[in-house]
Amino acid sequence: MKKNKTIKIVLIVFVLLSAFLVASNFIWLNPRESLFYKMQQYATYDKEDWKNHEEIEAMLKETVVDNSTGIPTSEAASAPARLHPVNIGFFQGSEKEAELLRIKNAHFENLVVAKNAPDDFDAQTALVQFTDGQLTDVIINQKLNIKIGKCYTNPNKDGNYSCISCMILLYNRDTKDWQEAPMGKNFMENAYDFYQASEGDFWQAKDLSMNIPFDYDLIKKYELKEE
Of 39, 43, 107, 141, which is least surrounded by CB within 10 A? Predict the structure, then answer.
């Protein structure tokens, strides 16, 4: 009888603790940190992690935003050096905080979704030309195709009629799943500029020149579907 009572108490404690951990994901201590994330910090951070965390917090406090333009005026909010989008899930601890700060300062909310953009075939054709035919071998022998995601209007036209910036991925026709890079030499990036020299002209590709967000919807669309 006493043993059953002990088991019951343990189960109740376990259920309550589980409920608390789940709820802590939805309790936000500030716009960037949930209670669960804060508990993880205290459980896993070392001295160096806390130092980086404090530096990032100081940068956030120093960032002043002009309400009329929405553009940060501090040096910390200057345009980031890296343009290509990265999945936030790849980061942990202080690196994740730094990436979240970079995303915040990029002001992706100011981007304009392009009304005119290449389809998958046009994007693939443009990239075959841009990579000097290297992509042709990948398409034929590795059974990969280019899939294009959401595109954003890019003001850096360089004299062309239009320019947009888009994330792309490689879709494997055999595995029915996307992959990050071709087998062997990785000559591909995950985002490019696409442009038209004149109205109605064919699409061409060039190196990315504008910071764009990671296209999670594109990944979800082409990930392997469970049967």
Answer: 43
Residue reference for tokens 């392997």: 224
pLDDT digits (tens, 9 = 90+) for 83-135: 899 999 888 888 889 889 988 999 999 999 999 999 999 999 999 999 998 99
Domain boundaries, the chain: 2-109, 120-222
pTM of the model: 0.64
What is the per-residue burial (b if ≥16 Cβ within 10 Å, else e) of 84-103? ebeeeeeeebbeebbbbbeb
> Percent of the chain at pLDDT above 90?
50
Q: Hunting for tokens 């009888």 — which residue is that?
A: 1
Nearest to 117 by CA among 128, 129, 107, 126: 126
φ and ψ at 177, to 5 degrees? -145, 160
Please work out, in degrees rounded to the nearest 5, the angle formed at the alpha carbon of residue 87 by the alpha carbons of 53 and 194: 125
